[in-house]
């Protein structure tokens, strides 16, 4: 018997493929990031959002994108690694369907012309999302600052969102990025789910699949919260494993012992 059948679930609610923006658990982190993103879309400028892997910042960006009116906002997503400035401009021009002919200077000019036309004539704001921004070279970050200079620096014509791991904050603190840092209008670093949110998160996920929160007892939830460090991805992985152990061993309730077995397996897979 499958774990879904055993626990009366219509699907595994902790499987990544079964996650949807519409039914997502609204954590404190997600609320705070959405508030800042909603503010950012109005004032434009730079927003920085950082977190450890698996905390849900990319998921929240997806939720934000789905909330936008496509007639007013044009969202472009780029996931960069250690590219050069010219490679960055080439990728950005390609995403905006702008010619990549010529060198860096020509592409820079074409990008600013296009962004200003979009803002002034079409009344549409570009929202450029750069994920994995912790890998951006200093030269690219410096050019991003220059790309945002419009009409003698008197107006923000587009929104730039830098999303990455927490050590991006250390990079931005360097003196060479002072001018870029002054343009940051909102900044949020994920804290992770607290113990109360972990319990609510698990209950929410189980309910989506038609399950009861009584499937997992308090002892198991305490063990889960202590191990996961507030990370939703780790919670999902451990819970899927715990449900598998529980169905295999025919435990109707996931207790502390089963949860510790699942945690041990997760720890081994990460070592």
Can you tell me the CATH class of the largest domain?
Alpha Beta
Number of helix segments? 12
Q: List low-pLDDT spans.
A: none
* Helix content estimate: 40-55%
Shape: elongated
The radius of gyration over CA amounts to 22 Å
At the fourth CATH level, what is the homologous superfamily of the largest domain?
A: P-loop containing nucleotide triphosphate hydrolases
CATH topology label of the largest domain: Rossmann fold
Number of domains: 2
Distance between the termini: 31 Å
Main-sheet strand order equals 2-3-4-1-5
Most strands sheet: 5 strands, parallel
Care to describe what's here?
This protein folds into two domains: 3-16 and 193-270, Helicase, Ruva Protein, domain 3; 28-189, P-loop containing nucleotide triphosphate hydrolases (Rossmann fold). It has a five-stranded parallel sheet, with helices on both faces. The mean pLDDT is 91. It contains twelve helices and five strands. It is α/β, with parallel strands linked by helices. Helix 6 (138-147) links the parallel strand 3 (125-131) and strand 4. 51% of the residues lie in helices and 12% in strands.
